[in-house]
Amino acid sequence: MTPKQLKIILPLAILAVAIVLMMLLKQGRQPAEQREDLPTGVLVDTITSQQESLIYRVSSQGTVRPKLMTNLVSEVNGRITEVSPNFVEGGFFAAGELLVKVEQDDYLTAVKAAEANLARATAALEEERARVRVAEEEWASFTDGLAPELGLRRPQLARELANVRSAEAELERAVRDLSRTEIRAPYAGLLQSRAVNLGQFISRGTVLGNILGTDLAEIRLPLSDHDLAFMRLPGPDNPNYPAVELSAVVAGQLQQWQGKLVRTEGVLDERSRVIYAVVQVEDPYQLQRPGDSPLRFGRFVQANIEGIASGAVFRVPRNLLRPGNQLLLVDADNKLEFRTVQVQRTDERYAYISAGLSDGEHLAVSALPNPLAGMQVRLGRVNGEWQEVDSTSQTAQAGD
């Protein structure tokens, strides 16, 4: 074959091979997969509104303090000869327990001297009474007339009687001073601070220490006018004391105690414009019930006060409430709707809706960047559970 013939045949052969390969590739190609159109609209999680009746809880906070707090003060002079083992900072003691004893020698001597003085006065009174009887008999033997007071020694008798009463008072004072050498606890409590010790000389008016009563603890809780609208304070027309639940984190664990609201201080604070309610807790250190966690003085606690019944309201998470008291709803056509509602009360977690909602309506809980009224959406989770949607919708949600 000549070169000239080769130049003509070779391009034709290459073109024929290309045509054959193109036909083979066309026959082996699979048809394109047909996909159904995905539904339009973003998935929105919702919760359904449900009307309920509940009892409001009013929240506040305060510091635990003792109801009774006393400075122990000496009423006598002398040297301290005895100190109770419980007379230490943080020590507990019972009512009437001896805490400090002062040297008694001088006071015992004073009691003896007062007793001797009373004995002398009593003897002088008896002697004067005998003289009065003798004077009355002598006067009667001479005349039947009225005897003068001085002749019957009545003034002398009154003087001796006054001496006896004065001696009795001196003895009572001496005995009282002797009893004051034993300084006892006026009530059950604990010692907060101590200012004296064994062997120290003290005088009348010396502060020995500061004690706190452990029978009752009190917590002052600030309440605003808005809070007062949802609770009933105790008073002449309401003898019931609202229950109060106190809580605090102690050693990393949440502890709770029960108390009752017993009174208010009755005067608004001029700076904060709040009124203080007082909650009492019995046996805060759990001395009668060992094993329970004590409610120590000085601890800051949260308080939930039992309030009034709400009637029929809708309780929704507070973060769903938009400016202007609006909620974002999904209507029956799966379109977004902004609804203005009447809010009766809000707290840290919930808003309580009294009007503007009905049972079973869908409240949007998903975070939508730019929601518009009438926007088409699809229901995703309702009350935390997936709705029955097709597989493509779930795949699209998973891809998101």
Automatic annotation (TrEMBL):
Keywords: Coiled coil, Membrane, Transmembrane, Transmembrane helix
InterPro entries per the UniProt record, alphabetical: RND_pump_MFP
Sequence intervals crossing the membrane: 6-25
Coiled coil region boundaries: 111-184
SUPFAM superfamilies noted in UniProt: HlyD-like secretion proteins
Family statement drawn from the similarity comment of this UniProt entry: Belongs to the membrane fusion protein (MFP) (TC 8.A.1) family.
Protein name, as recorded: Efflux RND transporter periplasmic adaptor subunit
Organism: Alkalimonas delamerensis
